[in-house]
Amino acid sequence: MSLDEDHGWVAAAAEQYDDVVALRRAIHAEPEVGLHCPLTTEKAKAALAGLPLEIRDSASTTGFVAILRGQTGDNGRTVLLRGDMDALPMTEATGLPFASTLPGAMHACGHDTHTAMLVGAARALCARRDRLPGTIVFMFQPGEEGHHGARFMIEDGLLADPAPDAAFALHISPNAPSGLVVGRPGTIMASADTLHARIIGRGGHAAMPHEGLDPIPVACEIVTALQVYIARQVAVTDPAVLSITKIQAGTAHNVVPGEATLLGTLRTLSEATRMQCQAAFKRIVENIAAAHGCTAEAWIDAGYPVTANDPRGSALQQAVATELFGEGGWQTMPKPMMGAEDFSYVLRAVPGAFAFIGAAPEGSDPATNPPLHNTRMTLDERVMARGVAMHCATATRFLERGFD
Ligand SMILES: [Zn+2]
Ligand SMILES: [Zn+2]
């Protein structure tokens, strides 16, 4: 018997569909950026009102968890489903009838659909509470777009009681065929750290550079040395990308500046390579500067860790997608994406998996659609029914069978 015949999740999700679309559009029209998204939280909570959920608020964000305890006798398993809630600081250019009414904010990463799908799943799962053998934690999380919302919610203790045994998340994508669930075991997204360096020399006349201490060639040498390091000391089987994206120094053709600054990004696919490259960045900046008599400061704004799927978690997602939507319902990604995701903090604490669900608009080419974070990004809303069914079936399967 397939999961679908077993639970009817596709049909249950279809029943939620109209409400999910309405909620998504309401959230889309009033996007909020960062860790504090009060209007979005209000809309999600209003849609959950009256359900048998225990709500716990995050102390440091407007996020919250909603806890659903099954009624068939608790077998001790707890599963977490996550939906992020925040938008991006950009102005929407889709022309949609429910487009952002707030200039400078847009749901260009589809987190409006994630929140709406998680609400839809919570409603459908509450309706089956009498058949749930464990506990489900719905994590409504703001501040995914670089604000570390998941980490703050973990630090607030929201993943401690009940502590999940598994965690799952879905991310919508306009660049995959509509309805296709796409994931992979192991690393699915990269770590992302911001690199900063300041090389301090001594300013003076450009005609007599030996009387000063020119930081510009030193900065250039550092940029080259960093690329040599990546090419010669990082294993190609566990790669890293290091891009210096901004160099700033000087004011005029005849003045040696007193200092130069560098800005860049480091992306890796394992924590081991990440730590190795972070240490090398500081070592190379400081020592090349010192070799030329300059001083230097190098510092790193730690971004998100590597998003690492537990192979059992992605196998479970694959099994569920295939059972719900047929053999063509799942595709294994051949390689990770170099973007980053703060669900990585959850997956560092709890085994589980993150997957994409394709939502290329009808008649469009997934390969050339405006991507996530584009002002013209649009999605096929019908996919949200599949997302709700995926959430419900993934959670119930884990409660019933664990990772088996
Ligand atoms: Zn994003
Ligand atoms: Zn996103």
Chain-wise SSE layout:
Layout: H1 3-7, H2 9-29, H3 38-48, E1 54-57, E2 64-69, E3 78-84, H4 111-127, E4 135-141, H5 149-155, E5 166-173, E6 181-183, E7 186-189, E8 191-200, E9 204-205, H6 215-233, E10 240-249, E11 255-256, E12 259-268, H7 271-291, E13 295-301, E14 307-309, H8 311-325, E15 330-332, H9 343-349, E16 352-358, H10 383-401
Parallel strand pairs: 3-4, 3-5, 5-16, 6-15
Antiparallel strand pairs: 1-2, 2-4, 6-16, 7-14, 8-12, 8-13, 9-11, 10-12
Helix pairs in contact: 2-4, 2-10, 4-10, 6-7, 8-10
One zinc ion is lined by residues 109, 145, 372-373.
Keywords:
404 residues; alpha/beta; eight-stranded mixed β-sheet; four-stranded antiparallel β-sheet; 10 helices; 23% strand; elongated; disordered N terminus; binds zinc ion
Question: What's the gist of this structure?
Answer:
The protein has 404 residues and is α/β, with parallel strands linked by helices. It has helices at residues 3-7, 9-29, 38-48, 111-127, 149-155, 215-233, 271-291, 311-325, 343-349, 383-401; strands spanning 54-57, 64-69, 78-84, 135-141, 166-173, 181-183, 186-189, 191-200, 204-205, 240-249, 255-256, 259-268, 295-301, 307-309, 330-332, 352-358. 35% of the residues lie in helices and 23% in strands.
